[in-house]
Specification:
It is built from twelve helices and nine strands. With about 300 residues, it is an alpha/beta fold. The chain folds into two domains: about 160 residues, NAD(P)-binding Rossmann-like Domain (Rossmann fold, 3-Layer(aba) Sandwich), CATH 3.40.50.720; about 120 residues, N-(1-d-carboxylethyl)-l-norvaline Dehydrogenase, domain 2. Strands 1, 2, 3, 4, 5, 6, 7, 8 and 9 form a nine-stranded mixed sheet that branches. It is globular, with a radius of gyration of 20 Å. The two termini are about 30 Å apart.
Length: about 300
């Protein structure tokens, strides 16, 4: 299948590479050229401008936020160049409001639109083991399923309205951020009583909290391994804000999300914007006057989410 791909950050490049390995023909565009050159070396075709990728059968995008997606799709007229029968698969985490706008815009142009945000860090994307949450017209979802199977371990359909997939993704990222904050506070409590972070987290992530999120982020917290960032703290702030906005739109109070927004804002104000979002765990240590946890590695080896 011919696939156009826009957005070759850590996640996008890994996903695009797996599409090539699965035998799909790929045309790619990215704002910076090095990742394009890497994929061309693997067999992809480079597009001179984003609109050129709309000539494919399927257009996939993995961009950072609403503004980036609006700039590429709308301001640069990429969708206007879409061929008849094109289906756009949006892999990114965007606002519910913009997801609805995009669905309407695609319908007006006679184009298919499928929201397919993913759960998993870059190493999970490289292994083609992402969990893909999918929503869109059943015929469109069926058509793009072979492509999604090349990048993910499991596909989770959640309905016909594309924004439903974005709600699931935002709610899921809110839960991950909550887990990180919980571990940060718990580690500070343990350290204040003389218990090393690595020992504490190994006990908890090997027993009561053995889920991938706790184990992967527990290791990052124990090792203080916040750079290079697989998911920048600023993106975490963006997603928490989007979750709050989705809650406002449906009259759903989210007091914990408000707390998390303030924690991310504090970390950004402290100069940690480019660190991995797991770095908010350090705030509890600082507030308790404990400094940072010692970089003692966990003994257990976690499975990736």
């Amino acid at each position: 299948m011919q696939v156009g791909f826009i957005g070759l950050g850590q996640m996008g490049k890994a996903i695009a590479s797996n599409l090539l390995r699965a035998g799909h023909r790929l045309i790619v565009w990215n704002r910076s050229t090095p990742p394009v050159e890497e994929l061309v070396a693997l067999g992809a075709q480079a597009a001179a401008r984003p609109g050129d990728v709309a000539a494919a059968e399927i257009l996939m995008t993995m961009l950072a936020d609403d503004a980036a997606l609006r700039s590429v799709l709308i301001d640069q007229a990429t969708l206007e160049r879409g061929r008849v029968g094109l289906i756009h698969v949006n892999l990114a985490t965007i606002s519910v409001e913009f997801a609805r706008e995009l669905a309407s815009l695609h319908r007006g142009r006679g184009l298919g639109y499928v929201a397919a945000p993913v759960f998993g860090r870059p190493e999970v994307a490289q292994a083609a083991k992402l969990n893909v949450v999918v929503a869109g017209a059943p015929a469109d979802v069926a058509r793009v399923t072979p492509v999604l199977q090349a990048i993910g371990e499991r596909i989770w359909p959640v309905g016909d309205e594309p924004e439903r997939a974005n709600v699931v993704k935002l709610a899921g990222n809110f839960m991950i951020a909550s887990a990180i904050e919980t571990m940060g506070e718990a580690v500070a409590l343990a350290r204040a009583h003389g218990i090393e972070s690595a020992q504490f987290l190994e006990i908890l992530t090997s027993t009561l909290f053995a889920a991938p999120v706790f184990r992967v982020y527990g290791r990052l917290i124990a090792e203080q391994r916040y750079e290079p960032a697989a998911f920048r703290l600023t993106l975490g702030l963006k997603d928490v804000r989007l979750a709050l906005s989705a809650g406002d739109g449906a009259h759903v109070p989210m007091p914990l999300a408000s707390l998390l927004r303030d924690r991310f804002l504090e970390a950004v104000a402290c100069g940690e914007a480019e660190l991995d979002w797991a770095a908010i765990a350090r705030l509890s240590m600082r507030h308790a006057g404990l400094g940072s946890a010692s970089p003692t590695a966990l003994t257990a080896t976690p499975s990736p989410p």
